[in-house]
C-alpha cells in the first residue's frame, strides 16, 4: 500500500467517483485510518456522511474522523456534536444556503461533513485548514469543472468506480479513457511560461502562429460560424492551439485532420476537458502532441462491486483487465481494504 499513501509529505488529496454511490466515503475512511501520526483536514465539495442517501434512500457510511481532525460542518451540527468539537472559525461562505464552520474533533467522531460549492472557495477553505495546522487535506470531490479535484492545488487523485456506474465493460472503457488522459504532460516551456500563465486566467481560444500567440477572442468552436473555422483551418504555419473548454467529438472531427496534417499541438486547460471516446483519445494522443495546463494526477483506482441497482460488479475480472495495461497505477478492491 506504500504506493497508495505518501506518508512522507504534506498533501492535498481528492477522492472522485465515476458516479453517485461509487464508494468514495468508504475509501476516504480507509485513507483517514491509514494516515496515522499526521493532523488531517477533511472536507467535501457538497455534503457527505449523511446516514441516508437522499436520492436513493439507501444507508450511507458516516465519515470516521480521529481526534484532532479539522473538518467543515454546518450550524445544526455544532449543537449535535457539542463538546466533541472545538469551533475554530465561521467561514464567510455557505453550502446549500447553510453557514459553514471549521471545527476540530476533540475525540474520534462518526459524523457528516460539508463544504463550499465552487473551486475558488474550496481552495481557500483548504488553505484555511492548513493555517489551522492540517498537514494532509482529504477532499471528497467530483470529476467536474466545479470541483477542486481538477485544480492545481490537488497533489493526487483517487478515482472510485462503483457498480452503480454501469456494466463492467462500461466501467473499463471509462477508466481506460481516464488513464490515457492522465498521460498528457503539463504544458510549460520557459519561453511560453508567461503565456501559459495568461491562458490559465483566459476563457478564450489562443492560436500560435510562427512563434507568436494570438487571442482569437472566442470561447468555443462549438456552434461557431464557418468564417471562424476558415480562419483557423486555412493557416498552414500554425504551431499550437489552446482550447479552454471542451474538445467534443464534433469539434475533434473537424479539427484533428488539420492538426495532424500540419503538425499542430493541442493545449487544453485540463485533460478532463477532452470529451472523446477512449478510441478517439488514443487516436489524438498517437497523432499529435497534446499538453495540459493542469495535469491528471491519478495515484490509485479503487473498485467497488456494490451497485444501488443490484447489478454488482465482478471486481476480480475488471481489476485483471485494468492491470494488463496500467501497472504503474495501483488498482484496489474497496472490500479488501476492510478484510
Number of strands: 18
Helicity, as a percent range = 25-40%
Query: In CATH, what is the class of the largest domain?
Result: Alpha Beta
Number of domains as seen in the coordinates: 2
The largest pleated sheet is described as: 9 strands, mixed
Write down the overall mean pLDDT: 89
Order of helix and strand elements from N to C terminus: EHEEEEHEEEEHEEHHEEHEHEHEEHEH
CATH architect. name of the largest domain: 3-Layer(aba) Sandwich
Broad shape = globular
DSSP strand (E) fraction?
Answer: 25-35%
Write a concise keyword list for the protein shown above.
Cytidine Deaminase, domain 2, 9-stranded mixed sheet, 18 strands, 5-stranded mixed sheet, 26% strand, alpha/beta, 2 domains, globular, Rossmann fold, 339 residues
Short description:
The protein is α/β, with parallel strands linked by helices. 29% of the residues lie in helices and 26% in strands.
Describe it.
The chain starts with 10 loop residues before the first strand and ends with a helix. The radius of gyration is 22 Å and the shape is globular. Strands 6-7-5-2-10-1-11-17-18 form a nine-stranded mixed sheet, with helices on both faces. The protein has a five-stranded mixed sheet with strand order 13-12-14-15-16, with no helix packed on it. It is 29% helix and 26% strand. It folds into two domains: 11-182 and 296-337, Rossmann fold (3-Layer(aba) Sandwich), CATH 3.40.50; 193-292, 3-Layer(aba) Sandwich (Cytidine Deaminase, domain 2), CATH 3.40.140. It contains ten helices and 18 strands. The chain has helices spanning 24-34, 75-81, 119-131, 168-181, 193-201, 226-233, 249-262, 278-287, 315-323, 334-337, and strands at residues 11-17, 40-44, 47-48, 63-65, 70-74, 85-95, 98-105, 109-111, 113-114, 136-140, 156-162, 206-209, 212-215, 238-243, 265-268, 290-292, 298-304, 331-333. By secondary structure, it is α/β, with parallel strands linked by helices.
Amino acid at each position: 500500500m506504500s504506493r497508495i499513501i505518501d506518508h512522507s509529505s504534506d498533501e492535498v488529496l481528492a477522492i472522485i467517483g465515476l458516479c453517485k454511490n461509487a464508494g468514495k466515503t468508504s475509501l476516504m475512511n480507509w485513507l483517514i485510518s491509514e494516515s496515522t501520526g499526521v493532523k488531517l483536514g477533511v472536507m467535501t465539495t457538497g455534503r457527505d456522511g449523511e446516514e441516508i442517501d437522499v436520492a436513493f434512500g439507501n444507508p450511507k457510511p458516516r465519515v470516521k474522523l480521529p481526534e484532532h481532525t479539522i473538518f467543515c460542518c454546518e450550524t445544526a451540527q455544532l449543537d449535535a456534536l457539542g463538546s466533541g468539537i472545538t469551533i475554530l472559525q465561521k467561514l464567510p461562505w455557505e453550502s446549500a444556503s447553510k453557514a459553514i464552520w471549521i471545527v476540530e474533533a476533540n475525540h474520534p467522531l462518526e459524523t457528516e461533513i460539508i463544504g463550499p460549492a465552487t473551486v475558488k472557495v474550496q481552495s481557500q477553505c483548504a488553505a484555511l485548514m492548513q493555517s489551522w495546522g492540517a498537514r494532509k487535506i482529504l477532499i471528497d470531490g467530483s470529476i467536474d469543472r466545479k470541483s477542486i479535484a481538477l485544480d492545481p492545488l490537488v497533489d493526487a487523485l483517487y478515482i472510485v468506480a462503483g457498480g452503480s456506474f454501469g456494466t463492467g465493460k462500461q466501467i473499463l472503457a471509462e477508466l481506460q479513457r481516464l488513464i490515457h488522459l492522465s498521460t498528457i504532460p503539463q504544458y510549460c516551456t520557459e519561453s511560453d511560461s508567461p503565456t501559459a500563465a495568461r491562458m490559465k486566467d483566459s476563457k478564450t481560444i489562443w492560436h500560435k502562429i510562427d512563434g507568436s500567440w494570438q487571442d482569437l477572442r472566442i470561447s468555443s468552436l462549438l456552434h461557431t460560424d464557418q468564417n471562424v473555422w476558415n480562419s483557423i483551418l486555412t493557416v498552414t504555419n500554425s504551431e499550437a492551439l489552446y482550447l479552454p473548454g471542451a474538445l467534443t467529438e464534433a469539434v475533434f472531427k473537424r479539427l484533428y485532420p488539420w492538426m495532424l496534417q500540419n503538425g499542430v499541438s493541442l493545449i487544453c486547460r485540463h485533460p478532463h476537458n477532452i470529451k472523446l471516446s477512449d478510441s478517439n483519445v488514443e487516436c489524438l494522443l498517437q497523432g499529435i502532441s497534446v499538453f495540459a495546463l493542469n495535469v491528471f494526477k491519478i495515484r490509485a483506482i479503487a473498485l467497488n462491486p456494490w451497485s444501488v441497482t443490484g447489478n454488482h460488479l465482478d471486481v476480480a475480472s475488471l481489476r485483471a483487465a485494468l492491470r494488463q495495461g496500467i501497472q504503474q497505477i495501483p488498482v484496489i478492491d474497496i472490500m479488501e481494504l476492510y478484510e
